Structure formats: C-alpha cells, structure tokens
Recover the amino acids of this structure.
C-alpha cells in the first residue's frame, strides 16, 4: 500500500474539510464543539460546560473535578454560487469571444467536522487535557467544463490539530494553561483546461498545473487563562501562536509549451502562513434560569499574502512560482448568546455572530499580466470567495444523569455577494468578470459528554 494511502487512512477519522468561503474568515474554522455551535461560539474559551473548551483555552481542564470526555461531529452543508462573463483575448484590446452569464453552482462540497477531547484532573491544582480537532479547512471544486478552470478548479486544505495541555488552578479563582499544537496539514491546488475548451480542443481537459499530496507536520503553542470573577461570572483569554507548515508535494503539468517547464512529479514546497489568534470571552449567569455569553476573536491574517511554490527542478524561473496573490487582512469575530435552564436536566441556547472576512475589498493593481491587458482584478478570488458573514444559531443539552449528556446544535449563516474579477494567460488570455451570487450554509451537530 502506498504511503499516501496509509497516511490518509490513519487520519481519516480525525481530519476534516470545509469551505472557507462559507465558514469563517479566510479558512479558519470555528467548529470545535456542538454546545458552542448553539451559542454561535460566543465565549467558547470561557464557558466550559464540557471538555471541548480545550480547543480554545488550555486552562479549561481546571474546571473539571473528574475525568471528562467529549466527542462529536458537525455536518456542514455550504451553498456557494458564482456567475459572470468570461472573455478570451488574442492580444490586449483584442477579444476573441465572450461567454456571457456563466454560472458555477454549489461549488463548495459538504463536509463532516469531527472533534474529541479529554480533561484529566490530577490533584487540586494540576490538570491535563488532550484535544483533537480542526481549526483550518478549505475546499472548492468546480465542474470540469467551467470556462475558467484555468483560474480556479480545485483548492483543498485538510488539517487536524492534536493538542496535549496542562493547567494550574490557583484557589479555584484563577487558572492558567499551556498547550502544544501538533498540526497535520494536507493540501491540493489544481488548474486545468476546461473539457469543452473550444479555442484549442487538443488541450481540452489537460492539467495546467497541479500540486498534489502536499503535506507537513508543524508544531506551535497555545496559552490561556480563566478568571472566576465571582461564582456567577467568568472571564477567559487565550492566544494561539501562528503556524507555518511547509507543504511538500508533487508538481505536474500536461501542457507543452508553457510558461512553465513540463513538470512530471517534480518536488515542490509551499509555505502556508496560518494566523495567530486572540480570543476573549465573558460568561455570566444571572440566576438559576438565565446565562449570557459574549465573545470576540481576533485573527491575524496579515501575513498571508500569497500562495507560491519553490520547485528546485524548475531553476531560477520557478523559485518561487506564484499560484495566487491573496493579501489577506486581519479581522474580528463578535458573538453573543443566551442560555436558558428550565430544569436541571436541560439547557437551551440561542446565539448570533458577525464574522469579518479576511479577503480585501478593492483591486490588485500590481499584477503585470492583467495590467498589460488593461483589466482590473480583485483581491477576492473564486477559489477563496471570502466575505463578511452573519450567524444565527440554536442548540441545547440534555443530561441523562450526572455522568452522561448529549449536545445538539443548528446554525445558519450567510454573506453578502461580492465582485470577483480574475485573469490568466494560460493556455489563452482569459478574464472572468462577475462575482458570487450566493454564500450561505447550514450546520448541524451532535456530541456526547461523559464524566467518570
């Protein structure tokens, strides 16, 4: 059995993928717990109603008096559509043909996002934790006859984060925690000639450039703290350091001649600048029946400027080889949620969040090829159709007894339509002038929690 098959089989139960354009800024994932889903992930690093807090704050294991397990899965059903005009050029100011109102519908596949957590108190002060989840993911996949697969065909990022942690509790009032993050990332980037490419049928369906089986392990860290201000009010803060996995994979191209060499399983390396994050949370229980959660999450996307590969076999002209300019910007996610406790066994939740997109508005004026043709191109791209999003969520927990409980959550999110303009010269100068016409998603999840 090949190494790739073994690797994917071993991680299949843990690894997750979802569409960045529908889920969160850039391709950051919030979907770390099902109780959090019902709260729109407000104060997810603070509430601590189950061991899933360990994904957001390693100090969370200090909240538990007994060994506690939590595990669940979230089903994500995104709907991303785009539409626009596609123009082919022979030379600047010399269009050959225009295909009007070209539509790509539902080009972000559905996904399952699993998670699992373990909190282990050691004594009155020390506790340990183990978290396994995904906090970055992306998949967009266009039909093979989409006229601009030369610009955007398949983009995929799969990740799993394994985070052992330790926490120290100071007199049940203040606790700190530290975690080590072991991140596995696997990526695919692909552009191809449309299968119905009429300008040159001899190259229809050919790979322009594919970057496959690119993967790496990266190590980083998280630090967090919890402050029990009163017996009803808790504040949490946590910081996740950035990750920079160097994804090594195989570069291939079917087309000759190209502005590229005819690569055949040439080795390449792409450094992926994944952002650091800072999360603030406040949870207050007013009385026996009502609670409030407030959250703010800052994601530092400024370092994610471009996707480029270093391909030693390509010589100077391909080191680096630019895939895509991105020029992301940092932003905030704000969330608020209410909880209602009608009885000891039941908790009901409702939440709202506003998530700022990482893709910049405006135009990339530094693209030499587009400038030569006098064509404006946006920072926002088809492969990562990012936008600001609104979330509305509901959820609940039912306790069977003091040991076993079940969580459920449901969310709907939507974003504004955005203008997208992109250009490529391979295999023929091609310009897309349009944008997204729909960005929305439904999320549903369930989890079980057990305290020994």
């Amino acid at each position: 059995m090949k190494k790739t098959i073994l690797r994917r089989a071993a991680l299949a139960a843990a690894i997750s993928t979802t569409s960045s354009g529908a889920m969160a800024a850039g391709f950051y994932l919030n979907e770390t717990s099902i109780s959090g889903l019902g709260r729109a992930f407000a104060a997810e690093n603070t509430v601590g109603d189950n061991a899933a807090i360990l994904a957001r704050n390693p100090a969370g294991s200090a909240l538990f008096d007994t060994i506690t397990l939590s595990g669940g899965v979230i089903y994500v059903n995104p709907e991303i559509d785009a539409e626009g005009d596609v123009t082919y050029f022979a030379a600047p100011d010399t269009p050959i043909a225009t295909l009007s109102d070209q539509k790509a519908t539902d080009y972000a596949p559905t996904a399952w996002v699993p998670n699992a957590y373990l909190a282990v108190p050691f004594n009155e002060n020390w506790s340990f934790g183990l978290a396994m989840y995904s906090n970055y993911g992306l998949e967009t996949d266009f039909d093979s006859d989409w006229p601009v697969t030369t610009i955007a065909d398949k983009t995929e990022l799969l990740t799993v984060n394994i985070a052992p942690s330790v926490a120290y509790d100071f007199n049940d009032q203040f606790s700190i925690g530290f975690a080590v993050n072991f991140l596995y990332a696997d990526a695919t980037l692909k552009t191809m000639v449309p299968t119905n490419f009429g300008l040159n049928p001899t190259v229809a369906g050919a790979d322009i450039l594919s970057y496959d089986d690119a993967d790496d392990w990266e190590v980083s860290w998280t630090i967090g703290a919890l402050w029990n201000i009163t017996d009803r009010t808790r504040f949490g803060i946590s910081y996740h350091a950035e990750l920079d996995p160097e994804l090594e994979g195989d570069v291939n191209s079917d087309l000759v001649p190209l502005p590229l060499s005819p690569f055949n399983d040439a080795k390449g390396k792409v450094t992926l600048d994944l952002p650091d994050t800072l999360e603030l949370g406040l949870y207050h229980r007013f009385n026996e029946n009502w609670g409030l959660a407030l959250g703010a999450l800052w994601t530092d996307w400024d370092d994610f400027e471009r996707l480029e590969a270093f391909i030693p076999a390509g010589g100077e002209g391909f080191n680096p080889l630019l895939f895509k300019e991105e020029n992301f910007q940092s932003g905030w996610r704000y969330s608020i949620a209410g909880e209602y406790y009608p009885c000891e066994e039941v908790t009901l939740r409702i939440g709202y969040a506003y998530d700022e997109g990482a893709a910049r508005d405006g135009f990339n004026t530094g693209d030499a090829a587009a400038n030569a043709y006098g064509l404006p191109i946006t920072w926002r791209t088809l492969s990562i159709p990012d936008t600001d999003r609104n979330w509305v969520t509901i959820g609940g927990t039912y306790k069977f007894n003091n040991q076993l409980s079940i969580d459920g959550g449901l969310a709907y999110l939507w974003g504004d339509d955005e203008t997208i303009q992109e250009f490529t010269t391979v295999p023929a100068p091609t310009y897309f002038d349009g944008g997204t016409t729909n960005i929305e998603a439904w999320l549903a999840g369930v989890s079980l929690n057990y305290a020994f």
Notes: Residues 1-22 have pLDDT under 50 and may be disordered. The CA atoms of residues 261 and 315 lie 9 Å apart. The two ends are 40 Å apart (CA to CA). The helical segments are 3-11, 20-23, 34-38, 368-372.
